[in-house]
Specification:
rod-shaped; single chain; 5 strands; 11 helices; alpha+beta; about 400 residues; five-stranded mixed beta sheet
């Protein structure tokens, strides 16, 4: 089976050439046999001699390469047929050779060239029609005229079908390339989405664990109660990280249906409903957080809700990293068509320095990518009262 798959394309390419060669050789043999056995009691045609057989060979043998040089083969065939007719040999045996050569030109050459070749071939065949028996003259003229028309029309149709097939092949290849490119973009977008989720989940919880571990180690002997509270915070943060990682694995393995079915359990995607829990975890890490909700709260779409939560989480995580002694403030304002979030701190260092420069600067980029998916914007920079400020705006169209 392996050999068949390997040789099949080569066999398919070689078959037309082999068929043309067999046709040319068989045609020479059949035409020569017919010419040799032709009865001519009335002496209508010239007596057969060696030149007749030579001309028959020159008419048919070049047809073996008719697909490679159609125009050259037609001109040569027509010249040999013309000589054959001029010498007045029996005319019928060479007609099919010129007809096949004309068909090949019509199938492979432009229509204007094929039309001129058809006219020239018709003139050559009409010259041969004079050799017909006296009673068959009109029939011979009609026959060669119809043969030329059929050869030209069928060849032209074959050429158009081949061109249409080539165009279809090109379009198919373009569609395949577009589909591959689309699939690659989708894979890349999914990878970026997973990377953002991993960054937000791991960076936040690892930051909390790191701070609490340092605190527990510092007061382990002097203040056992505080150390235990720090260890409890570490355990809770680890459990929540594991829960979010399991939720992400469910999405990757089973798709959105499983996620929707499990949206009611503790593994559901976080959102603003868990903002208070997030604030308590950050406060346990040593950064006081003041949370304010203004406006008339309303339910956000799941994607936008997760986006807002992740931006707040990332901003607070960077406060823990870069200004652990600062106080943080989170303001969520609901207006008619958008949700506006502002996370500020009163630290003296630019808390997002790690997100705006350096090899690990993925926080601010991730925030902006998340917000951009939902048509939102993120700005980050020094606050008007000092410290640092992250502002997020997410448009949320509401039915009135």
């Amino acid at each position: 089976m392996f050999a068949q798959r390997t040789w099949s394309p080569a066999v398919r390419r070689a078959f037309p050439q082999a068929a043309d060669t067999v046709y040319a050789v068989v045609s020479v043999w059949l035409s020569s046999t017919a010419l040799r056995n032709l009865p001519d009691p009335h002496g209508y045609w010239r007596q057969t001699d060696v030149w007749a057989y030579v001309l028959i060979a020159l008419v048919y043998l070049p047809l073996a390469v008719r697909r490679r040089a159609p125009l050259t083969v037609l001109i040569g065939t027509a010249a040999c047929v013309l000589c054959y007719f001029t010498l007045a040999y029996y005319h019928v045996v060479v007609v099919s050779g010129l007809g096949l050569a004309l068909y090949t030109v019509a199938a492979q050459c432009p229509r204007r060239v094929a039309a001129k070749c058809a006219a020239g071939s018709l003139l050559v065949l009409l010259w041969g029609a004079r050799l017909a028996e006296p009673d068959n003259g009109p029939f011979s003229v009609a026959f060669v005229s119809v043969m030329v028309a059929v050869a030209w029309v069928t060849g032209d149709r074959s050429r158009r079908l081949a061109e249409r097939g080539e165009r279809l092949a090109v379009l198919t290849e373009q569609l395949r390339l577009e589909q591959e490119e689309k699939a690659q973009r989708a894979v890349m977008a999914e990878r970026m989405k997973i990377a953002r989720e991993l960054h937000d989940v791991i960076a936040h919880h690892v930051s909390v664990i790191s701070v609490q571990t340092g605190l527990a180690g510092y007061v382990f002997t002097s203040d056992p109660k505080t150390a235990r509270e720090a260890l409890n915070t570490i355990a809770g943060s680890a459990r929540e990280a594991m829960a979010e990682m399991r939720r992400m694995l469910v999405v990757l393995r089973e798709g959105t249906e499983r996620t929707q079915e499990g949206a009611q359990d503790h593994n559901a995607a976080p959102g603003l409903g868990r903002l208070a829990q997030l604030a308590r975890r950050v406060e346990a890490a040593g950064v006081p957080v003041d949370v304010r909700i203004t406006g008339a709260p309303f339910a956000l779409p799941p994607g936008a809700d997760l986006c807002v939560y992740r931006v707040i989480q990332e901003a607070l995580t960077n406060v823990m990293k870069h200004a652990p002694t600062a106080n943080a403030s989170v303001t969520v304002h609901y207006d008619e068509a958008a949700v506006r979030v502002r996370v500020t701190d009163d630290g003296q260092e630019p808390v997002l320095a790690g997100t705006t420069a350096g090899p690990t600067g993925h926080g601010l980029i991730g925030m902006r990518e998340r917000a951009g998916i939902y048509g939102g914007t993120v700005t980050a920079g020094p606050g008007p009262q000092g410290g640092f400020e992250v502002a997020l705006t997410i448009p949320v169209p509401r039915d009135r």
